[in-house]
Amino acid sequence: MSHLSITTAAAEQIRRVLDERGHGLGLRVTVKPSGCSGYSYVLDFADEAANDDVAFEEHGVRVYVAPEALEMLDGSEVDYVSEGLNRYFRFRNPNVKDECGCGESFSV
User: Fold this and answer.
1) 3-state secondary structure of 58
2) Which segments of the chain does DSSP mark as H helices, in order?
3) CA 24, CA 108: separation in Å to the nearest integer?
4) CA–CA dist 10, 13 (Å, integer)
5) CA distance 62 to 14
6) CA dist., res. 69 & res. 13, Å (int)
């Protein structure tokens, strides 16, 4: 069975953005071929659940993962971090074998 965890900081940010939008079920995560290392994460907000989405719930929020991304994201942690002026979702993914220097893409 696949697992994806959501930190408290990520849950708070997901909840904050959904409240600002006024609608939505949670965060949707997929991966796409891209970048210099092979794949990149694609984040969007889920306004409805697709039939084949896998939902993970923690701290009162949901993250929906497309089935084609499930194997690559299994065991990952979704976090929300602040580094200087930058704030973003960060994935701690145990399946990643290599990342590009800019952190935009990864390979498994």
Assistant:
1) strand
2) 8-21, 67-73
3) 30
4) 5
5) 9
6) 22
Task: Write down all domains in the chain, each with its CATH number in brackets.
Answer: 5-107 (2.60.300.12)
Tokens 């602040």 correspond to 82
pLDDT reported for residue 107: 60
pLDDT band for 104, please (50, 70, 90 cuts): low
Nearest to 89 by CA among 44, 46, 54, 22: 44
CA dihedral 71, 74, 77, 80 (to 10 degrees): 20
Spatial separation of the C-alpha atoms in residues 30 and 66, rounded to whole Å: 6
Backbone angles phi, psi at 21, to 5 degrees: -70, -30
- Answer whether 105's CB lies under 8 Å from 35's CB: yes
Residue 4 tokens read as 């994806």
pTM metric for this prediction: 0.84
